[in-house]
Amino acid sequence: MAGLRGSLCACSLLVAVICSGQNQPDVKTIVERSVAANDKDFAAEPRFNFKEKDHVGQTTKIFQVTMIDGSPYQRLLANGEPLSPAQAALELKKEEKAAAERRAQTPEQRNKRIANYAKQRKSDHIMMSQLSKGFDFKITGTQKVGDRTVWILAATPKPGYRPPNMESQVLRGMQGEMWIDQQTYEWVKVTAEVIRPVSIEGLLAQVEPGTRFEIEKTPVTGDIWQISHFSMQSRAKVFHLIKRNSAEEDWYYDFEPASK
């Protein structure tokens, strides 16, 4: 009897494992759903004000980013250290002046300003969307991140991939990982690094190994997530002779709905 129970338990466990595997989406579905979630978050970005901390080289600055009449305005909060009360008051006056100037713009001036903002966002979004198009993916495991379970996907360059713009050309020589939340299909983390030199068409430049970036996202309200952390290290040769190395790290936090 004990042996029968053991056999039944083993069979039940085997069936559970098989069923769990059948219920798991394939990697193509996971990536497609994650892209849809990221598109939703991107569309929602202008609906939020937030704080931004930028660390470039030896300089760290903190800004309050506020949507004013269709485009963001950055008000300086700290430059290495918090501003003095007099400096903070001056920055606030600058913001109030910028808001008044925007309200006084002609329709043509306003449309041009908002179009420039939309153009910049479109460029950023093309690069983000190409992360899912320029790679082949393979599920390598799962992991707990806080109270969330994520799929870990390895990303390798897709043969024959044709970048749509100059910024995306670097993806041809990169590999990386995507951490995707199993419940929401949101990108919890994306990392990529250059594994072979890539020449950038249109520029006499070459991006070299050692170039890498990382993106982390976090929920901000309801089903909307936003980027909370971005870091990049770049190594390149301009004119194939002059070396250009740089590093940048940014944090985004204190998200709140922007005034309509």
The helix-and-strand class reads alpha+beta
Beta-strand portion reads 35-45%
Whole-number total of structural domains: 1
Order of helices and strands: HHEEEHHEEEEEEEEE
First-last Cα distance? 71 Å
User: Would you count the extended β strands for me?
Assistant: 12
The shape, in one word, is globular
Weakly predicted, low-confidence segments: 1-22
Radius of gyration: 23 Å
Secondary structure: helix percent: 25-40%
Q: What is the number of helical segments per DSSP (H or I, 4+ residues)?
A: 4
Provide mean pLDDT, rounded: 85
Oligomer: single chain
User: Main beta sheet, described?
Assistant: 12 strands, antiparallel
How would you characterize the overall build of this protein?
This protein has helices spanning 2-23, 27-44, 85-103, 107-133; strands at residues 48-56, 59-68, 71-79, 135-145, 148-157, 174-181, 187-194, 198-200, 205-207, 212-221, 224-238, 242-257. By secondary structure, it is of the alpha+beta class. Strands 1, 2, 3, 4, 5, 6, 7, 8, 9, 10, 11 and 12 form a twelve-stranded antiparallel beta sheet that branches.
